[in-house]
Amino acid sequence: MGTITKVSRREFMKATGAAGTGLVLAFYLPLGSAESAEPFTPNAWIRIDPNGTVHLWVHRPDMGQGARTALPMILAEELDVEWPQFERVMLGAADANVYGSQLTGGSTSIRTSWERLRQAGAAARHMLIAAAAAEWEVDPSTCHASKSTVVHEPSGRSLGYGELAERAATMPVPEDPPLKDPEDFQIVGQPMPRLDHPARVGGTLTFGMDVKVPDMLYACVARCPVFGGTVAGYDEAAARAVEGVRDVVEVETGVAVVAESTWAAMKGRDALNCQFDLGEAADLNSAGIAELFERRGADEGHTTRDDGDANAALSTASRVLNATFEVPFLAHATFEPMNCTAVADEERCEIWVPTQAPGLQHQGVTQHFGYAPENVTLHVAYSGGGFGRRILPGYVVEAVSVARAARVPVKVVWTREDDMHHDQYRPASRHILSAGLDRSGNLVAWKHRVVAPSITGTHFGGDLQAAAGEATDGAANLPYAVPNCHVDYCRADTAVPPGWWRSVFNTQNAFANECFIDELATAAGKDPVAFRLAMLGDAPRHRGVLELAAERAGWGEPLPAGRYRGVALHYSFQSWAAQAAEVSVEDGQIRVHRVVCAVDCGIVVNPDDSAAQVEGAIVLGLTAALKGEITVEGGRVVQGNFHDYPLLLMREMPEVETYFVENTIDPTGIGEPPVPPIAPAVANAAFAATGVRVRRLPIRPQDLRRA
Amino acid sequence: MARITLNVNGASHTVDVPEDTPLLWVLRDTLGLTGTKYGCGIGLCRACAVHLDGEPVAACSIRASAVGEREVTTIEGLPADLSHPVQRAWITEQVPQCGYCQPGQIMGAVALLARNPQPSDADIDEAMSPYLCRCGTYQRVRRAIHRAAEEV
């Protein structure tokens, strides 16, 4: 999601300070898209108070991934501030032109902030040292900083950062402050406890669902369960007769019942007994979607990779394999369902929302209602999970609509069923693959056609090339050396709204790629790890994680009776991940006992939290591999709650071991890259156990009983 | 409306709410004890787990009017200084990710250890499998329960 644009220090960092305020260093963190450095518009600040407290304002929401600890760690490292003497302030969204989407997504928080945060920390340290040297009238080179203090070694004098802050603000901002050698890092690379975990453990952290503003009422919205349908009629009197109901208002998305409690709002909403105009999607079902995908897959595709001549190579290959893979729609099922609190009139509004893209949502509200941007204040609440669900502004716009119509502060609460019925779903997809082996079992041809709806195309428009790039991410960049390779995309939109789901199209593409590669290894009579490694000569970081995972998993060593291994490798969001899964299968029931994951994401800023991200990614991916499936009947989602959209349980949790490749390369993402490999690793282990190739997800017992 | 008196975390509260209101919404909306979370509303996820006389229950699935004299303990009823062995173990093992399910997980773990001070992995599987976590913290929940058991 974007690249870091290089701009000189002069364009992104400025110091300010006034009597009594200490040092304020304003700087600019890349937004990932259009960069604007002139005029100087900072979006991140460091402040050092006269009492020594260091504040860092950052623009990235934290939905559980720990960016609000890891980003300050990077700054603290270069600033030489004593950890964790740090106050972090979460920015709300202001003008999206300044702050961008503030998106937490694409595993970008660390990757795009790393260089600038280091430079800002180093600049502030340099200025504090300069201030101390001026105070003592000594050469700055005879001073050094350590743990929030500047020390003059020859005389043994020292001053704290707080004492120096005001004077430091008058010092010039250095051009290119030297950065530390990663070998000297004291904070980055240490397993630091998450700064906000005490509040999570104490139950005092304020999630969006916990926001309470003065005179606030609660609302639930009745929406047509069929995609694209509308509410045609409802029993307002019945809703108003429910104890605690205060108002019934119409909004674009349906009918809102406003009440004194969430419970009264839920009951009032049920009492509406809505009639619906079902619209054009009323006959849509999963079987029809599968037929559409099959039909579209027979059309011409939009090519995103074309090396050599795959068709010619297939026609001359000594052995050709064909396979079609299918995966279903998935719901995000964030543990905190959607909600949003709003106070609004025609002129202005104030919003409290759990979000992963506050800037985008601020813009969405501003544009939808025609507010002046400065009249929309958006407060970022903590999110109970995100996974890509809290990006689009729909649930925020809806809450503002309810608040405007009801003329009261209101929190719109989605029930679990509301959330599951009105998600933007991980796209279902169909993958048509062909590959050719030569006489020696070498891969000589590869074709992969992705048939799926377009996420960005649906929500933002754009051309087929952009849609194809998104949908073949993880397919077009197949890492294995193959001289003839063709990858293309057939767009197949349905009425089911698609969305970004942790690692986006990489889950689908990794499943197809890595299952098929395994099948080719078997056809070539080669070990799955050795087969892959032989084709990764020019891909050292792919090879590195695969070798590390294989070694730690004891690949090739005997397993206890009834246990089988499978492996998978995938690169996404600029990080590499390989996983080896150990499973057993009894009467088609698969049990995953152990998963060994190796990751190369460069320097690991907070290793324990990064390991937690890997564990979580594996649970999310394993849930999808073994259980997750959203189906559609009559234009509506069938599943509604955890009985028919089950999650992985404690007793199903495998032992997860995480290993990081050690290097000093700038850090990349960790939130998404460990998700894609788990489904194919488990599917390949299931093949080792049963001799049955998994061609669809989730893996069903009846599929594995075929043998 | 029904007038209901509840004993919550050692204090008595009298509230006027519709008679069928689940305990969850009285705790959250009426008493402002928002540490207890809404996750599914039908007793499937245990984000809303609280104790009634020490027994864990899903607060979304019991009416406040049915609680009677029983003592309700919520996450806020554990020590505010996080000194309970389960809370300490949760910090040491860095269990939470988003944290939304964790009040329920913690109440479940406290109840398990009160009943079974040295739970085996199988005991943990049985007691904690009703407690869902979307972020996937199960491995750390297990480790934290074992750690707390060592301290108790």
Helix content of chain B: 25-40%
Percent of residues of chain B in beta strands? 15-25%
Give me the secondary-structure category of chain B: alpha+beta
Tally of separate domains of chain B: 2
The number of helical runs of chain B is 5
Rg for CA atoms of chain B? 15 Å
Q: Per CATH, what is the topology of the largest domain in chain B? A: Ubiquitin-like (UB roll)
Gap from first CA to last CA of chain A: 43 Å
Count of beta strands of chain A = 28
The CATH superfamily name of the largest domain in chain A is: Aldehyde oxidase/xanthine dehydrogenase, molybdopterin binding domain
What features would you describe in this structure?
The complex is a heterodimer of chains A (707) and B (152). Chain A contains 21 helices and 28 strands. With 707 residues, chain A is α+β, with helices and mostly antiparallel strands. Chain A folds into three domains: 9-188, 2-Layer Sandwich (Aldehyde Oxidoreductase, domain 4), CATH 3.30.365; 208-227 and 230-277 and 338-413, 2-Layer Sandwich (Aldehyde Oxidoreductase, domain 4), CATH 3.30.365; 286-329 and 425-704, Aldehyde oxidase/xanthine dehydrogenase, molybdopterin binding domain (Aldehyde Oxidoreductase, domain 4), CATH 3.30.365. In chain A, strands 11-12-9-19-16-17-18 form a seven-stranded mixed beta sheet, with helices on both faces. Chain A has a five-stranded mixed beta sheet with strand order 1-2-3-4-5. A five-stranded mixed beta sheet of chain A has the order 14-22-21-20-15, with helices on both faces. In chain A, α16 (506-523) runs parallel beside α20. The longest helix of chain A has 28 residues, at 109-136. Chain A is globular. In chain A, 57% of the residues are buried. The model of chain A is unreliable at 1-10, 32-39 and 91-98 (pLDDT under 50). By secondary structure, chain B is of the alpha+beta class. Chain B folds into two domains: 2-77, Roll (Ubiquitin-like (UB roll)); 85-151, [2Fe-2S]-binding domain (DNA polymerase, domain 1), CATH 1.10.150. In chain B, 34% of the residues lie in helices and 16% in strands. Chain B has five helices and five strands, in the order ββαβββαααα. Chain B has helices spanning 23-30, 85-92, 102-115, 121-128, 138-151, and strands spanning 2-8, 11-17, 49-52, 55-58, 71-73. In chain B, a hairpin with a 2-residue loop joins β1 (2-8) and β2 (11-17). The longest helix of chain B has 14 residues, at 102-115. In chain B, 59% of the residues are buried. At the A-B interface, α6, α8 and α19 of A face α1, α2, α3, α4 and α5 of B.
